[in-house]
């Protein structure tokens, strides 16, 4: 077995041990970016290497799941500056973005992992990780940040875990809401339903405008068909507007095409090379104002083909004097 393949099998052992329900072939395929057949070969190798630890179960959907009871190699201590630096960068990003609760949880994990190292190894790993943080510009990350009250973030997390109903004051109005998740962007929005509203649709509450939030010891039944990921994909940014949802088509000039290919404007975007060397990007979403804010950065190097309402919003604002592209 080659080094690379052995490395993947050890990672698979870690992956299977970390999931209490085990992992499916589909999850292995997505995690490692391999074909279905390769995922099968990886599970065969896992069973061969750890015959007394691997269990194969069948879930309610008749899918096979691989679990590992106890594999020492899958419970290795933190090793080296790379893993520690990745943790430190994640912690710093969370802090900069105002996610103090999650940053604190990751910090506790980092401390437990460091405690498992010898003191001299821990000091060296910390020093190397600090150097990498500086190199990535994370130690002093610039840019505007909308502050989020850490107590509010903790309360929302508790409500989501319940799930429990919340009472909040928003725009000077007391509201009872059933929280479903948080959309993270330039600003943060709580996605929630108001049970007293007959339409039953999701509403959005800016976290920085929520006042006097209380957790109500009253659970509610979440809609099993609701997916926050799918719901978020209906918007370009964080703001949802069903009336604006539809196909979006942008054409980038040949001069901007290479830079535009580096961007993922939307999770479900489709790109097509144009005959003149330009680039076409298509996706379905709403949120024209946030699209306008982003398109302005491209100046005259982008043309909105659809929808016409968005084209009207950006027409006349395509500057040609921007020295660099986004």
From the structure provided, what is the oligomeric state, counting identical versus distinct chains?
single chain
Instruction: Count the DSSP helices.
Output: 11
Give the overall shape: globular
If strands are numbered along the chain, what order do they take across the biggest sheet? Answer: 6-5-4-3-7
Radius of gyration: 24 Å
Work out the number of β strands.
11
> End-to-end distance, in Å?
44 Å
CATH class of the largest domain, please?
A: Mainly Beta
The CATH architecture assignment of the largest domain turns out to be: Roll
Order of helix and strand elements from N to C terminus: HHHEEHHHHEEEEEHEHEEHEH
Major sheet characteristics: 5 strands, antiparallel
- Indicate the structural class: alpha+beta
Question: What helical percentage do the residues reach?
Answer: 25-40%
Beta-strand percentage? 15-25%
Low-confidence stretches: 71-76
CATH topology of the largest domain: SH3 type barrels
Overall number of domains: 4
Question: What is the mean pLDDT?
Answer: 83
What can you tell me about this protein's structure?
The chain is of the alpha+beta class. 40% of the residues lie in helices and 22% in strands. The strands form 3 sheets. The protein has a 5-stranded antiparallel β-sheet with strand order 6-5-4-3-7, covered by helices on one side. A 4-stranded antiparallel β-sheet has the order 9-10-8-11. Strands 1-2 form a two-stranded antiparallel ribbon. The longest helix is centred in the first third of the chain and has 17 residues, at 80-96. The chain is globular and about 65 Å long. 19% of the residues are buried. Mean pLDDT is 83; it is low at 71-76.
């Amino acid at each position: 077995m080659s080094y690379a393949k052995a490395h993947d099998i050890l990672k698979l052992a870690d992956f299977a041990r970390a999931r209490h329900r085990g992992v499916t072939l589909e999850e292995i395929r997505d995690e490692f970016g391999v074909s279905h057949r390769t995922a099968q070969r990886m599970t065969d190798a896992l069973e061969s290497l750890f015959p007394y630890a691997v269990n194969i179960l069948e879930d309610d959907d008749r899918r096979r799941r691989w679990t590992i009871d106890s594999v020492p190699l899958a419970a290795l201590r933190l090793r080296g500056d790379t893993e520690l630096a990745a943790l430190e960068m994640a912690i710093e990003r969370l802090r900069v973005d105002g996610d103090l609760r999650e940053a604190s949880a990751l910090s506790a994990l980092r401390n437990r992992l460091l405690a498992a190292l010898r003191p001299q190894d821990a000091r060296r790993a910390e020093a190397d990780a600090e150097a990498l943080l500086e190199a990535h510009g994370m130690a002093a990350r610039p840019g505007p940040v909308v502050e989020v009250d850490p107590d509010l973030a903790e309360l929302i997390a508790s409500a989501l875990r319940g799930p429990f109903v919340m009472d909040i004051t928003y725009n000077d109005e007391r509201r009872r809401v059933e929280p479903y998740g948080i959309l993270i962007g330039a600003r943060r929005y709580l996605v929630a339903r108001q049970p007293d509203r007959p339409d039953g649709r999701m509403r959005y509450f800016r976290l920085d405008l929520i006042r006097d939030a209380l957790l109500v010891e009253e659970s509610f039944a979440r809609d099993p068909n609701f997916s926050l990921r799918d719901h978020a994909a209906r918007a370009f940014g964080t703001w949802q507007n069903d009336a604006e949802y539809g196909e979006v088509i942008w054409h980038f000039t040949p001069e901007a095409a290479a830079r535009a290919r580096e961007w993922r404007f939307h999770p479900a975007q489709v790109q097509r090379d144009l005959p003149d060397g330009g680039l076409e990007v298509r996706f379905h979403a709403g949120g024209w104002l946030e699209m306008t804010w982003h398109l302005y950065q491209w100046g005259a190097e982008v043309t909105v083909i659809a929808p016409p309402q968005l084209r009207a919003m950006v027409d006349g604002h395509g500057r040609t004097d921007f020295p660099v592209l986004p």
